[in-house]
Design brief:
Number of helices: 13
Order of helices and strands: HEHHEHEHEHEHEHEEHHHEEHEEEH
Number of strands: 13
CATH class of the largest domain: Alpha Beta
Helix content: 40-55%
Strand order of the largest sheet: 2-8-7-6-5-3-4
CATH topology of the largest domain: Aspartate Aminotransferase, domain 2
Oligomer: single chain
Radius of gyration: 21 Å
CATH architecture of the largest domain: 3-Layer(aba) Sandwich
Low-confidence stretches: none
Structural class: alpha/beta
Number of domains: 2
Strand content: 5-15%
């Protein structure tokens, strides 16, 4: 007998984690596989967080509101207006424990295997895994270099759109670092309105712009967005706090209510001191400015290295990732495993993000400058010897 859970395999990140544990080389491991920021969480916010934990034992340890603490929601509304020049209402915002969890809630908008969840390929593996877990059909949208890593709407039939319940779009994009403009998003929203599905715009890396020409934009002033789009934002990556598990969604009242009804079945809300820490972080643009400066510097080191080696890469406009073409005609898993074996430098094979990623590997710029310089030395020597 085959049980439902037997169909699922560990994600690429589980595999990389086991690889790290098995490392026995004399060379120090330089891990740039899993995208977990190495930059320290802001000390002042950490001190405030700790103070609320100690002094709030009489009021912060009860069940929190599942939709978010009023102080955090006000901070989100203020942040949104500062970034996007648009004033949200309280009913347009809900708080959750992390985008990974929120993706699973969104997949429950599908009711059966006849319903389709549309996911990008390459893309964050949780989109597809969560859809399959919910028993929905999955339609993979290729993100190809020749189309600027955007799905090609002309390749998707009306039959697929008619069955779709949710389309996941992720920009700034993981793993490629590509971005999407408001003008490029518009035809996707038109399809959502016409065929009555919801676009989940995963904007976990919204605050990590590495290019000056990357403009931030909102869907709220676009026709149909109030009933056909939801934005997801994260504290994890921009504010160096993956372990805190907190983020928020913005959408029209109808969509927020549907999302919250699903979320509230299994979610009792986020620990209040965590919410208050996030409220403070959203008022600290200097944290983001410092992080962006660091990631830009790290990116330049790799760009110089790859330019000398003749290795092709996408110049990232945002995120802290680099999407790099596998050299020497190899496929991604073979290259990454060989690189790990020979240099003790670990990247993520593109195949882990989908079949259209197999000619690439992803670098997470989550090691200090000195280690990135060392990684480049090892890779240059290895690639040079291979030639």
């Amino acid at each position: 007998m085959v049980y439902y859970h037997d169909k699922f395999k560990p994600s690429i990140f589980h595999e990389l984690s086991n690889l790290v544990k098995s490392h026995k080389s004399d060379l120090e491991l330089i891990d740039m596989g899993i995208g977990d920021p190495d930059i320290a969480f802001d000390k002042k916010i950490a001190e405030s967080f700790a103070k609320n934990i100690v002094e709030g034992t009489d009021k912060f340890y009860h069940y929190p509101s599942t939709d978010g603490h009023p102080i955090l929601k006000k901070s989100i509304i203020d942040w949104y207006e500062r970034i996007f020049n648009f004033k949200l209402q309280d009913e347009n915002v809900t708080v959750f424990k992390g985008i990974k969890e929120a993706i699973s809630y969104m997949c429950l908008f599908a009711n059966s295997a006849d319903d389709i969840i549309m996911v990008p390929d390459p893309g964050y593996p949780t989109y597809k895994l969560a859809a399959e877990t919910c028993g929905a059909g999955v339609y993979e949208m290729p993100l190809l270099e020749e189309n600027d890593y955007l799905p090609n709407l002309n390749d998707i039939s009306d039959e697929v759109f008619d069955k779709a319940k949710v389309m996941f779009l992720n920009y700034p994009n993981n793993p490629t670092g590509a971005t999407m403009s408001k003008e490029q998003f518009a035809p996707f929203l038109e399809k959502a309105v016409k065929h009555d599905f919801i676009i989940c715009l995963d904007r976990a890396y919204n605050d990590l712009s590495l290019s000056d020409d990357t403009k931030k934009w909102t869907v709220f002033d676009m026709p149909g967005a109030d009933k056909h789009a939801i934005g997801m934002y994260s504290m994890s990556k921009p504010y160096n706090a993956c372990g805190m598990r907190i983020g928020f969604a913005t959408a029209g009242k109808t969509v927020i209510e549907k999302f919250s009804n699903i979320k509230n079945v299994s979610d009792n809300g986020v620990f209040i001191p965590t919410q208050l820490a996030y409220a403070e972080a959203l008022q600290r643009p200097d944290i983001l400015e410092n992080n962006i400066k660091i990631y830009k510097e790290r990116c330049e080191i790799f760009k110089e290295c790859f330019d000398k080696l003749g290795i092709q890469y996408l110049k990232p406009k945002a995120t802290f990732y680099m999407w790099v073409k596998v050299p020497n005609g190899k496929k991604s898993r073979e290259f990454v495993m060989d690189c790990f074996k020979e240099t003790a430098v670990l990247f993520t094979p593109g195949i882990g993000f989908g079949k259209y990623g197999d000619d690439y590997f992803r670098i997470a710029l989550t090691q200090p400058k000195e280690k990135i310089e060392e990684a480049c030395k090892r890779i240059s020597m290895w690639v040079g010897n291979a030639h």
